[in-house]
Amino acid sequence: MAESADAQVIKIEFSSWELLKQGWSVTWDNAGLAIGGFFLYWIIMLVAGSIPFGSLIVGGPLSLGLAMLFLNMARGRGGDLGDLFRGFNQFGLTLGAYLLRVLIIVAGLILFIVPGVIWALQYFYTMYTIVDGEKTSLGALRASKRITKGNLLSLFLFSLFFGVFNILGMALCFVGVLVTGPVSIMAMALLYNKFAEAHQMIPEVGEPAPGQVVSTPPAAPPEVAEYTASPAPPEVSPQPPPSGIPEAEPSAEDESKK
Fold it and tell me: Which of 13, 44, 184, 250 is the most exposed place for a label (fewest CB within 10 A)?
């Protein structure tokens, strides 16, 4: 990305309430996949959290998989639960980006909290940029910082809005989070689309997702021309002389030969 593009600030106008309504609609249209993917993600993270450093190890690949799953639904491309595990195809990249983001935010929180909040907002969409093609951990962090530049306050209000929304879900014996969680992540994906479209980051339809193994069909064997034998000419049988014409009488020489 050129430096001029890095310095470009694009202000994105959006309404958290409208994103909530859109997120609800898209989640409802993909209810089984959205709720199932969200539930599976948190079950795996809870199990990994019981193992030393487990959540740090699988957090990156699973975070990318969750972003990919919800982005596919938000973009009308369907998706399947396999998307949730596709980040493991790029384990080093996702692990590096995840750990860098966590370390930066923790360091910022130690520095009187405010820098940590700012950096958390700047690197809000790190995993989403990897979904759209960033190839390095630092590149993903820079891309997230670039697209959120000039939009940190609105992102902060967006986070507060959906934080309250999820608190309401937890108030319903935590069962409500199975609805508010997927809707919130869908709203995040829809908002990311606005940033990505403004910065022309969305790959064309049909391009493989990062980490997706694309199988190339084997080349067709060369065509072999079939040999067809030419038909034999028809046999010509001797024709009798026309009627009315007398046969020639044998000559004396022929008679002597006999």
Answer: 13
CB neighbour list of residue 7: distance below 8 Å, 6 or more residues apart: none
Residue type, 163: G
Give 3-state DSSP helix, strand, coil % of the chain, rounded to 5.
65, 0, 35
Return d(Cα 173, Cα 158) in angstroms, integer.
Answer: 24
pLDDT in tens, the chain (258 residues): 444 444 578 999 999 999 999 999 999 999 999 999 999 999 999 999 999 999 999 999 999 999 999 999 999 988 899 999 999 999 999 999 999 999 999 999 888 788 899 999 999 999 999 999 999 999 999 999 999 999 999 999 999 999 999 999 998 877 899 999 999 999 999 999 999 999 988 887 655 554 444 444 455 555 555 545 555 555 555 555 555 545 555 555 555 544
Distance CA 39, CA 33 (A): 10
- Position 72, amino acid: N
> Residue length, the chain?
258
Q: With beta carbons less than 8 A apart as the criterion, state whether 16 and 157 touch.
A: yes
The pTM score is 0.76
Token pair 């809005």 is at which residue? 161
